[in-house]
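Journal club prep, notes for RB
We'll compare a predicted complex against what the paper describes. Inputs for the adenosine-5'-triphosphate case:
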Amino acid sequence: MVDVLVKTQKLKKYFRAGKSGLLDKILRQLPPLVKAVDDVNLEIGKGEVVALVGESGCGKTTFGRLLTTLETPTEGEIYFDGRQVTKSDQKAVRRKVQMVFQNPYESLDPRQSVKGIVTEPLSKMGISKVEKDAQFEKVMSAVGLDQNFGERRPRDLSGGQRQRVAVARSIVSNPEFIALDEPTSALDASVQSQVLNLLVGLREEYNFSYLVITHNIAVARYISDRVATMYAGQIVELGPTGEVLKDPKHPYTQALLKSVPSLDTKKIEPPHGEVPSLINLPSGCRFHTRCPFVMEKCKTEDPSMRRVGNVDVACWLF
Ligand SMILES: Nc1ncnc2c1ncn2[C@@H]1O[C@H](COP(=O)(O)OP(=O)(O)OP(=O)(O)O)[C@@H](O)[C@H]1O
Ligand code: SF4
Ligand SMILES: [Mg+2]
């Protein structure tokens, strides 16, 4: 494998489900914990693209926010370029990581001009106006937008243009790692392919590493080197994209792929059953309440990741 840029070890992020009310305070009770990310180990290489797929609410955005220092872990470690990210050097790491947020309609400040939005990450870096203008020009050209867009507001842009602005903002400070949260889900198919091509081109030019969070398996197939399947706060399968998508090992990855429409699928089948609550997680394997292959052992014992060929998978079938 190429040099590792980002690494997580037993990474956890638990949230409190809501604020304590007066009664909770009197009874000294805390709201229950939401285990959004629960014990995740992942390495992303320099220049590598990893896609993170999984159902809504399984913890994908939280994981992206942890890697880009927008959330502080509850437990576990994050390493960036070989060094553990601690509270004191979070600031330094923040310059090298960026996140493109889930919804370009909500994530761009409507009051700011495009130039203000794109160059904002530079504002705390103490660079001159001349350098800032040059960098703005460079990234706007890299994302295929005209300089004249600088004075516009987000409301004056199409969805594709907004997403280009979000990408321009994410690369303006010359980061090494970018987490892209559903970068194309709000776009129609033709604009989606333009943005995907843009991301692929930028990665080739600047050797960025990406974590691409997506519901769309076709996007994962197109853009990523490896794919990670997330279920209820954990990664349950991780391997080379072609291999995982052609021959998924984990029953959950299999179920996800069966739910994807394609030209030759006659019937699409969503995974059976309810997505489990991250507050009351099922015992044993978290997928056992929905798994067609469930065995007795699965109900009580939690499978850890095992290497099967080139793929890591957490399932008692292996
Ligand atoms: N700041 C927060 N406070 C409390 N709970 C949170 C917070 N952020 C996320 N959560 C909870 O953590 C869980 C995982 O959320 P997350 O947004 O990471 O999921 P996701 O996989 O990105 O979902 P989607 O595909 O719908 O975007 C959810 O139950 C969510 O409600
Ligand atoms: S461990 Fe058991 S329940 Fe979990 S995915 Fe594998 S077979 Fe299904
Ligand atoms: Mg999300």
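Talking point for the session: The chain has twelve helices and twelve strands.
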